[in-house]
Amino acid sequence: MYTIFFCIYAVIALIGIVFFSLREFHMLQLNGYKTPEHSWWMKKNFRRYIFPVIMLLFGGLPFAFDAWTYFIPIFCIAYIIIAILNKPSKKFKKPLKYTARVKRMMTTFFIIVAVCFIWAFLIAKKGEVGAEKYIPFGIYKPHFIMNTVVWLTPILVPLSNLINKPLETYIQHWYINDAKRILSEMPDLHKIGITGSYGKTSMKFYLSELLSSQYNTLKTPESFNTPMGVTITVRQHLKPTHEYFICEMGARRVHEIKELCEIANPHDAIITSVGEQHLETFGSIDNILNTKFELADSVQAVGGKIYLNGDNDLIMKKAPQYKNAVLYGLREHNGYRATDISVSDRGTEFTVTAPNGENCRFNMKLLGEHNVQNVLGAIAYSHGTGIPLEKLVLPVKRISPVPHRLQLLDRGGNLTYIDDAYNSNPNGCRCALRVLGLFDACRILVTPGMVELGAKQEELNYEFGVEASEACDYIVLVGKNQTLPIYNGIKSTGYNMENVYVADGLNEAIAKVNEYRTDKKKIVLLENDLPDNY
């Protein structure tokens, strides 16, 4: 009888562990499998672990009162609660991906769980002999073991990652070395590295569109800008017929660009920007600047060209150190310069002048002067490969907005969205507000604010609120605590706070937007969409 009861208890505990661990594996994956970063995330989200900690401490009460029999049902209810709280949700923008690495971590995790449960079962079997009560005194230990395993799941998940680290390192090195081998066997392939605090993904898409008009070109897809993302692209998509390989390079820590350069060995470089992005993990703006220019250092060593956004003041601090630098931008000192810019809600027109004096008029569907900078960089590089400016006019006209980066989404009637949801930053916010200001319409901002800005996060969000108050008729903030600095920034300007609404989630925010009544067309800027681990 007791064995049956014990098995039922174990099954309920296991259900709690499964659902609890799945959410923890998801968060660990979003934190890049980096244990220090995940530990910091756990500390920041400590409220999420208050209930498990209470229940872990609560599990010691049977020892104190010798009344453990009555605690078993409470434990079972707690396991069901934790399973419900962590049940799979459709609201996630990036759900847990069951990659080979995740499966290996899960295997290690459940081996740990199985060992603990088998240990508890063996103890329980010993206590069953001669049992006179439904749950005999003295066999609370197996329940205590299982209870401890359930509530230590947030520790056991990253522990399984640490246990697997030597194996994962070996596997990653094997794949990376294989990608290096593939690249070394294609000596005629021209490799371009693109990095920047913002604009690098857009630049990659724009450059691919232009180069593809003349050359067989491959780019890293979506936001595949990590060592494994580049490795996967090379191993799965690179063909002997490719002439150009455009490699986006992202970084959140010092020397991560150098690591990517050791894989791709780029011939040329494009640095789109340096700004206050990922300050939380970089620690300082100088660390960001030096890390981005690890790409330039790598390219200079092989005698390649380094294309730099000459309108970025931080980039210009380092530019004189590179003899093969080619500057592009809107200011007079740039080699490739855009002038006579005309922006409307239909797109943008501008004139490009090359260092050799050649000039040409371009028009594109993209909005805003900041997009002129990125497209100009793509034009500059393409022209440097030998493509005349006039042959780039049609490819530039074909360029479509990159998804979630100032992408116009017409919903019909009097409602249009400007989807700028991807990983907002201070410069991007300012540019997006300027684009919103182009429209003669009812201008509405929906935003949860900016993250990963370290000690400057509150200050920069406050400034965002000040700037938003000047550009928007209505402002909908998503998340009370996260957006408090923005709210205070808006309020400081004397803005009509009746036109500010704080929503708990995006669905509520969109519902509020639909409630606004106006004779004008509604233009809604969706500025940033926080990752699932925020």
Short account of what is shown:
The protein has 21 helices and 15 strands.
Task: Summarize the structure in words.
Strands 2-3-1-4-5-6-7-8-9 form a nine-stranded mixed β-sheet, with helices on both faces. It has a six-stranded mixed β-sheet with strand order 10-11-15-12-13-14, with helices on both faces. The two termini are 46 Å apart. α1 (2-30) crosses α8, α3 (50-58) runs antiparallel to α7 (140-151) and α9 (200-211) packs across α16. 50% of the residues lie in helices and 15% in strands. β7 and β8 form a beta hairpin. It is built from 21 helices and 15 strands. The chain folds into three domains: 2-166, no CATH class; 187-398, UDP-N-acetylmuramoyl-L-alanine:D-glutamate ligase (3-Layer(aba) Sandwich), CATH 3.40.1190.10; 407-527, Alpha-Beta Complex (Protein-Tyrosine Phosphatase, Chain A), CATH 3.90.190.20. By secondary structure, it is of the alpha/beta class.
**Portion in helices:** 40-55%
CATH topology (fold) name of the largest domain? UDP-N-acetylmuramoyl-L-alanine:D-glutamate ligase
Shape call:
globular
CATH-assigned homologous superfamily of the largest domain: Mur-like, catalytic domain
- Strand-residue fraction? 5-15%
Number of helices: 21
Low-confidence stretches: 129-139
Query: How many separate domains make up the residues?
Result: 3
The CATH class name of the largest domain reads: Alpha Beta
How far apart are the termini?
A: 46 Å
Strand order of the largest sheet: 2-3-1-4-5-6-7-8-9
CATH architecture of the largest domain: 3-Layer(aba) Sandwich
C-alpha Rg (nearest Å): 28 Å
- Helix and strand content put the structural class at alpha/beta
Secondary structure tally: strands: 15
Sheet of most strands: 9 strands, mixed
Compute the average pLDDT: 88
